[in-house]
Specification:
Layout (H helix, E strand, L loop, with lengths): L1 H8 L4 H7 L8 H29 L1 H21 L3 H29 L5 H33 L4 H42 L1
Helix pairs in contact: 1-6, 1-7, 3-4, 3-5, 4-5, 4-7, 6-7
């Protein structure tokens, strides 16, 4: 989850800066608020169904779906020149966010033993919420600065930061899927042993 959260949230700070760049979209504060509100609208709309989806299709499947949507949103935001697609990307970011919240907390509650739940949920929440500022400070900010200092355009530097965020999410998704497969294989082996 660290990779997924750091990847998604690494663009939290530079997102509005990117959209406001004179050499890029150059949106004013009103348009920027509309774009930001698309994320909130998605979170509200999808939020009504996230728990239902997680219960119906399984928390792991829904986490994979949410992460995949987040990856698509980051890629759309990175490669598009269309303001309309920025709105689509913003909506998808909000949808991914609420889907990941619902499923990841459910998965954590299943994996964390009851006796250690308070302590380990505190650790989980710490990594989750630190990803908002630390990911931008440790990943996106330095990357953008290095690329601009090397003479790359501002727009290119910010786009690379979004793509690196998507890459981190992909790494997190691969790790999650591999671990999920290992757990299912182990559970199937344990069930076979019990049947004998």
């Amino acid at each position: 989850m660290i990779f997924i959260n750091f990847g998604r949230n690494s663009i939290a700070v530079p997102y509005s800066q990117y959209l406001s760049l004179d050499s890029g979209f150059n949106v004013n504060s009103i348009m920027l608020s509309f774009i930001a509100n698309m994320r909130s609208v998605a979170a509200m709309i999808i939020g009504f169904t996230a728990g239902y989806l997680s219960k119906k299709f399984g928390h792991s499947h829904v986490l994979i779906l949410g992460t995949s949507i987040g990856i698509i949103a980051l890629i759309i935001t990175a490669i598009t020149n269309s303001l309309q697609l920025i709105f689509v990307g913003g909506f998808l970011m909000g949808a991914a966010e609420v889907i990941i919240y619902a499923s990841s907390y459910a998965i954590a509650s299943i994996l964390i033993p009851a006796k250690m739940r308070g302590k380990l949920f505190a650790v989980y929440n710490t990594t989750f919420f630190l990803s908002w500022g630390m990911a931008s400070t440790l990943i996106s900010g330095p990357l953008i600065n290095i690329l601009i200092n090397e003479g790359r355009s501002e727009v290119f530097a910010y786009q690379c930061a979004f793509l690196v965020g998507a890459l981190l999410c992909i790494i997190g998704l691969i790790i999650f899927v591999v671990l999920e497969i290992k757990v299912k294989i182990k559970n199937n082996i344990d069930v076979r042993k019990l049947e004998k």
